[in-house]
Amino acid sequence: MSDTVTEMNQVMAEADCLVNEQQVHSAIETMAGEITERLHDRNPLLFCVMNGGLILTGQLLPQLKFPVQAEYLHATRYRQETTGGILEWKLRPEVDMKDRTVLIVDDILDEGTTLCAIADYCLTHGAREVLTAVLVDKQHERKARPDLKADFTGLEVEDRFLFGYGMDYKGYWRNAPGIYAVKGL
Ligand SMILES: O=P(O)(O)OC[C@H]1O[C@H](OP(=O)(O)OP(=O)(O)O)[C@H](O)[C@@H]1O
Ligand SMILES: Nc1nc2[nH]cnc2c(=O)[nH]1
Predict the structure, then answer these.
(1) Of the bound ligands, which one is closest to the alpha carbon of residue 167?
(2) What InterPro entries does the database record attribute to this sequence (predicted)?
């Protein structure tokens, strides 16, 4: 086995499972209900924030039983590190968002720098309103703005380095079927 696979198996074996698959499913179902109630008649333009937003978006979309225009964008500030840097746009949205209700979907609101920058970008490009949906809100006092919250939050999770359900550890384990915390982080 390659060194990387051995390392990643060990990371999983030693990780703490903070939220299991069933609990994540139920959180996503609740989010879908809340989003439906708020946006069913708004013709929303949904942006999946790649890469982390992929799993939540994929599980959320089929539960939204109303017309949704689904697109993606790619912005990153952690790359494969466990601390964040400057936001780098890898793919900016090209679709016309003028006067649209935009819903940004991502895996995690940690400090919130990523979501704030994407929301500002959408407003600058003419969106009428921008709402945000995250699977996880990490609990700490380092938010980019005091009391920063997403409009739709699945789970509140402790201040550890997390992986699973879209969140990666060094590019791996986005596929982990639950929310896990890396040992010692
Ligand atoms: O709230 P913040 O502190 O800004 O962090 C949250 C962001 O960090 C992760 O992205 P990352 O930059 O790791 O890219 P990825 O989506 O490819 O994992 C995550 O997907 C969020 O977009
Ligand atoms: N994978 C991962 N990405 C993050 N981006 C910001 N916080 C986190 C985290 O805890 N885990």
Answers:
(1) 2
(2) HGPRT, PRTase-like, PRTase_dom
